[in-house]
C-alpha cells in the first residue's frame, strides 16, 4: 500500500534568520521590542522579524516572490508616503498596509491643527481677507481659508509634498490662510493652516517634539518680547526666529524707565496716571509719559534717590 505524505516547509519571509517557532503577529497582536510585524501575503508569512533601524530611514524594498500587493513606503528624500507593489517575501520595515499608517509613523503633522483659533479670530481673519483681496475674489479666498481651518494638515503641493517655507522671509511664502511653522528641518518648516491677522495676541506654545530651538514670543501681559525653547512642532504664529523679528511684528512697550518698570506678581506692567501716582509700589515713582503706555511706575523713590546720592558721594 502506498502512503502519500504532505510535508509543510516553512519559508522564512524575513531578511534575517529567525528563531523557530515563528511568532505570528497582526494589527491587534504587535511584536515585541526590537522586532516588527512583517505583513506577508498569507497568514504563514505574517510574522515578527528583526528590526533593522528606523523603518522610516530604510530604502524601498519590493521583495521577492510571485505575489503583488499594494503597499506604502516612506520616501525620506521627498518627505512623502508613496505606493508600491510588494512581492511578499524579504521586505523591510518600511512597508505599510495603508497611506494613513505610513504617514502616522513617518510623516508626523507639525501643525497644531488650528486649535488655537477662536471664533473671534476666525471672523477677524475673514474680514482682513475681504479688505485685502476685495469682493471680486472673496469667494475663492474664503473657501481657501475654510479649507485650511478644517483640514488641520500642512499645505500640500499637487504631488503630495508638504510645501516647505522660510520663516525668515519678510513676505510669507505660504498661501492665504496658512502660516510658516518655524521648524528645524524642511519637513517641519511647512505651511500650517489657521493663520491669524495678529499673532501677537496668541499665547506662547512650546510645542511638541525632540528639538530644542531658541525662539522668541510676544508677552502681551508685559508688552515685551521674550525668549523660549520651541520643541519644533505644534506651535502657533507667536513664534519668531529673533528678538528683532518679534519686536518688528509686535512693537513691544517702550520702556521710559532707567531700569525695569514695576510689575504685578503675574508679570504685568503697572500703569499709573498723573492723578493717581500713589498706586506705584514702594521704591517706585510714577513716570508720566506722553502716552498711557509710557505712564508707568519706574524704579526710584526716596530710597533710590538716597542710594544714588550715596553712590555719587563715594
UniProtKB/TrEMBL annotation:
Record-linked Gene3D superfamilies: Pancreatic trypsin inhibitor Kunitz domain
InterPro entries (UniProt xref): Cuticle_assoc_divergent, Kunitz_BPTI, Kunitz_BPTI_sf, Lustrin_cystein
Ranges for domain BPTI/Kunitz inhibitor: 56-106, 200-250
Pfam families: Kunitz_BPTI, Lustrin_cystein
GO MF: serine-type endopeptidase inhibitor activity
Residue spans crossing the bilayer: none
PANTHER family for this protein: BPTI_KUNITZ INHIBITOR DOMAIN-CONTAINING PROTEIN, PROTEIN CBG15282-RELATED
Protein's recorded name: BPTI/Kunitz inhibitor domain-containing protein
Species whose genome carries this gene: Gongylonema pulchrum
